[in-house]
Amino acid sequence: MKKTGIIFSLIALTFTLSLPAQKDPEAVKVLTDFSRKASSAPSVKIGFTLVTDDSREGTTEKVPGSAVISDDKYVLDLPDNKVWSDGKTVWSYLPDVNEVTITEPDPEDKSFASKPSLLFSLYKEGYKIRLVEQTAREWVIDLYPEDINVNMIHIRLKIGKSDLDLESAEYRTKDGITVTLTTDKYDLSFRPGSGYFTFDPAGHKGVEVVDMR
Questions:
Q1: Model-level pTM?
Q2: Which structural domain range is residue 79 located in?
Q3: pLDDT value at position 13?
């Protein structure tokens, strides 16, 4: 589940026009347009590659994955874990052992694992924002936590100009960890069917259920 939280830490449209001085107005406009487009879609379907670099240990891990997000419902698919959430219940399935753990999201938990739609609105509170680069193809925007005591150094987002799509998200910490999510698919047209965000035990014969609720 640690990896789940990191992904959504990378990946509600009320926004005051009276911006604090530390928020670059041009960067805020890009993120507001990005958020509005994603949040108005039936879902956000992302195919990605996740690279985790640990500079202290000298290790690099690279895994493919995909996610479908609709408000606070989501499905996250990784090679060793698949997670469903309908906003009220979370099912974490381990295919290697055919086991699913059922939990409930903590209403006080403001992490992306509990509220993944924050991927599209995190810039609104608690961050300084700066447009660090602009090319013909994309905007590069850094978000710095206002709380200097947290472990995060910054989140760097690359937003495509043609489609206002998320091209990549980089999460860097003080303890030498850099997690980079690079998208290879970004689809706002997918319409999830009924039951899409819930685990179906009938499709997993013999599954062991660990109910932690």
A1: 0.81
A2: 2-211
A3: 26
